[in-house]
Amino acid sequence: MKFNKICVIGLGYIGLPTASTFAVNGVNVIGVDTNSHVIDTLNKGEIHIHEPGLPEAVSNAVRSGKFKATTRPEEADAYIIAVPTPFKHDEFGEYNGVKYKLADMRAVTSAAESIVPHLKKGNLVVLESTSPPRTTVDLVTPILEKSGLKAGSDFFLCYSPERVLPGQILRELIENARIVGGITAESAQAGHDLYATFVKGQIIKTDATTAEMVKLMENTYRDVNIAIANEFSRLAEKFGVDVWEAVSLANLHPRVKILSPGPGVGGHCISVDPWFFVEAAPELTPLIYHARQVNDAQPHFVVEKIKQALGELKGKKIAALGLAYKPDVDDLRESPANEVVHLLQGEGAQVKAWEPFKPDADMEGIHMASSLEDAIKDADLIVLLVKHTEFIKLDPHEIAEKTKTRVLFDTVSGWNINDWEIAGFKVIRLGVGK
Residue 64 CA to chain centroid, in angstroms? Predict the structure, then answer.
């Protein structure tokens, strides 16, 4: 199939890089978002999120005339849905007395409905948003068929998950293997032809529900692995062991790869996607459920360790370094660092947070410092929550001149203890019971 014009609905961390990549490869792209500020920003050739290489890609796409942002879909040859699929914060499912989180599919529903007036025979629709199994078949198909057209015969319908790493999205969109799941073999082929516009990695065709499950399996596997690492950190403290040393030694085994513990699991994928499996089949997912419980509880464990270090937290001043869900990105969604800050404040602590990748973030209930110096100058304790490169490279002697505290709590094993101790600091590390 040939695609002269596509419409990408959702211009966030996945939709915008995808749209700009299609545009710089010569395809006319209409980018759709409900946020008018985002639309205005993009049409000026500027961007609203941090991702290496993306400012240049968007600027080039706009200047070429191949990319235009708007608030409504237009007629196109193909439509890509790349909107968020968070979980609901005010509604839960329950199985045998155990509550679990539910996917919020309103954005996907709204995006599919917005396509209906424009859908024509021979069009292709691709859902990229991470979704519970059978979303493409059971949710998206009936909505699109309100057009009077039949999915799989009158138009093509696929599910194709993004599988990219923030900080490397533009490169991985092109180089990574791509899974395209069609509701029919012909739909899968149409999806293959679309992504062949720029994908250099292998493009694998399958059915839509398998593709949905693959995406969830990838992130659930990592979530369970992180959960066992976080439990190891608690066990290490109980048994007087350094978990970081123990993990590194265990990983010398050729068939063992334990991930790193930390303050929890965040982001829009790993902390969310496992719940889609639990929601779809709570009777079959006790391991996945309990891994989620472990990782969601990790911020509470961090706060308890800080209480042990400082005693009563009420009135204590704490500098929190990092709010992003992972190092060297500006994505604050579902970040465990934010939860740690809220919990500390709930204990009466006065917390100043410094996030260098999003210094102007407007986080409800969080006091954002204007600089690193502002965050640490009056602190009674500095807690490292995110392993940003610039935090790891801090000079202990320079920091000693800018803060009154000599107590550090490192939740990510980012600092060399000897260097900081020489500068006069006491360093407490998560998962170290020695």
Answer: 30
